[in-house]
Structure formats: structure tokens, C-alpha cells
Amino acid sequence: MDWLGHAKINFTHAPSPVALKEKDGAQTDLLKICEKVTPPCHMNPLLFNGHLQTMWTATKQHGPPVYYRRKVFNADDKAFEGTFAVDFVAEPFEETDSTLPPRTVYFEDQEFETLASDDNKPQLVVLHGLSGGSHEIYLRHAIAPLIDSGNWEVCVVNSRGCANSKFTSGILYNARATWDFRQTIKWLRKKFPNRPLFGLGFSLGANMLTNYCGEEGVDCQLTAAIVCSNPFNLEVSNKALKRTFLGREVYQRVMGTSMKQLINGHKEEVQKHTNLDLERLQNVTYLWEFDREVQCVSWGYPTESAYYRDASSSDAVLAIRIPFLALHATDDPIAVEEAIPYEEFSKNPYTVLCTTSLGGHLCWFEPGGGRWHAKPITSFFNHMAFNVDHSKLPPKTNGLPPRNGKSEFHFNPARHRMEIKAGSE
């Protein structure tokens, strides 16, 4: 046990992290920045392991209030037909909408049409965790300091059906669902051409964001990104959870139940747009059973293990070509340490993995109720947005990892096995 909640911090990185230049002319690199912006990690000593940290989330603290205005987008690619909701951080308001999460209302059409701007404020785009949404406490803790500074614009891409959004097609979401995030980035780039874009992902959303950055490679439109508590290797994480009582009967059961409730909350839409067997779904207890009945049926995977292998983001780490920081507690009982791709982080100079010996899953509760992860997130993004001269970034290499030896064969880390029918934009 770490003494009185003082967690150990370690960094995993390539031998020569990508070189960066500060706006004052000073030379630095990604590792030095990550070390500089990461404060000591002092956890609540009463929550002295990952299980206690993670289970403490059940106390449902209020968290900082964040207000959103929602826009529902139509997918612009026929392969991913349907709609998805993006929540844009807004100034506090008094309106309410009982059909949406707290402090969230829809944009008025005219208000949304005038949203475009030529300003150069940094724009953060966030992906939440499994069955969550923009209202999640861990997410609000992370973005509140950036919002309060007045220097940032923030929006959250809600996974389809989450945060009281609707299913409007048979295209749901899964752990490698990068399409709605990709469309949002393209839309933001068009409407706000001068804004540097940044990405932030949590848990399942961290897996999606890592996959996105790997898939985009040298063409990634993000300036930098952070992922928190990424399960990375979903098959390994699944097996680790299944082999322990707490993993199976607490975490797998809770996650399976939350996903079943998500589908049950959209029964009419699911019956209309999918061929899912809702009667069989009622017998689901654990997350892997849900994935077998929903993800395999929806996406054509023969087994949930095939889905986990295909959707995992551990290989995608090798293809990332933007400054990328991963925050992870090694006592995380859900995104387990054995699923962390340490070797991949040590091969890619654009990536740094910061691990803490305490913190649980998306928790990092400090004495007094604060959340530690908000501190390095805020400091890293502020440093990358306001201190680093991005016009001086070194040329990006291709999206392939470095070779071992002189082999003529290439490994493509962003390749997926599931074939997606051709769409049109």
C-alpha cells in the first residue's frame, strides 16, 4: 500500500520523445512537458486501493456544474446512417428540458446557425465512457478548470443512445466507433478554421480516441490528445475481469446491467431499426453477454472475443502522430494493468504513458473530494495550446511503426478486421 495515499508516478516513453519548441524559443520534448505538467499524486488515504477508489463513485458527488446546448447531427456517411448528439459547453442558463440530462437544452436553430467563428481559441472535443455522457462527474471535473479560465471552447460527442439521445438507425456504437467523432472534427474544422483542436477520452471513449488518432495517423486534425483509463486490450481486460469474483460479480455485472438498461430505454427504436433479440437480451447479466447479444449481432462478429480483438486500441498507439498523453492508474480494476501496451508506448516518440500506483478507474479521489486527473489534463492542454509553437513541429513520419531489422514486410497498426461497407460523404 502506498504510504498515506502518496501514489508513485512513472512515465513510459520512447528513447527520443518527439522534439517540441516553446513560443519563447526554448527547445523541449513531449516527455519533458508531460513531466512538468504532472503534479504529485496524493490520493485519499481512506481509499487506498483501486476497488475502494472505483466504488466510491457510487456516492454520487455533485461535481462542478457544467451547462450544455445540444445539437443533433445527421451522419454524413451512409455507412453510418443515423444521428448523434453533440453537447457544446455554454454559459449558465435557467431553461430546463426534462428529456435531457441536467443543465442541458437544445440549441435554437438560429442560435446554432450563427455559431461559426474565425476566433483562434483552442477547442476541446471529449468522448465519455461506457453508457455515459456529457453529464458524467469525472468528465465535468476534467473540463471545468478549462471552462472557468474562459480561454477554451469545449464540446462532448455523445455515443448514440447515450445521455438521452436517440437511436435513429440500426447503427449503434461500439468500442471502435470513431465515425461520429471524425465527422465532428471535420465539422469543427470547417466552422472554426482557426481553432486548434484537442481530444480527450475516458475509458471506452479513450479507446475510441486512441483508435481515431491511430487511424488518422499523419493526417490527424488534432493538435494533441489525452486518454484516461483506456482499457486498450479489450480481450485481456475482459478475461481479467471474468477470472475474479469482484471483476465478474461487481464490475462486469454493473456494466452489463447499465448497457442493458440503455437498450431497454430505447426499446421501440431498437425494435424498429435492428434485428436484436430483446427477449434474449433480458437474460443478459454480464458485459460480455451483452456484447455477445448486441455487438456481435450488430456488427457481424462471430464471438465477443473477435469483437474485443478488433476494437482494441493497443496497436493503434504505434500509428499516432500527434503529441499524445495517456493517464492510467495501475490499480484500475476495470482497465487492468496487464492490458496496457507498455511496449508500444516505448516505441512511439509521439506518445507518453503516465501511470499512477493509485487511482482506480476514472477516479483519482484526493483528500477533500477533488479529482487528481483534472490537474495534469488542464496543465497539459494549456501548455500545448499556449506555450508550444506548433508551427515548429518536426515533420511527421508515416503512420507505420519502426521496423525491426531489414524486413520488407510492414505491420499496419491501424488495420481493423471488420469490413465496413462503402459510404458516401
Automatic annotation (TrEMBL):
The active site is at S203, D332, H361. GO terms for molecular function: acetylesterase activity; alcohol O-acetyltransferase activity; monoacylglycerol lipase activity. InterPro entries: AB_hydrolase_1 (IPR000073), AB_hydrolase_4_sf (IPR050960), AB_hydrolase_fold (IPR029058), ABHD4 (IPR012020). Its EC number is 2.3.1.84. Gene3D superfamilies: alpha/beta hydrolase. Residues 124-341 form the AB hydrolase-1 domain. Displays enzymatic activity both for medium-chain fatty acid (MCFA) ethyl ester synthesis and hydrolysis (esterase activity). MCFA are toxic for yeast and this enzyme could thus be involved in their detoxification by esterification. Belongs to the AB hydrolase superfamily. AB hydrolase 4 family. This is alcohol O-acetyltransferase. It comes from Colletotrichum phormii.
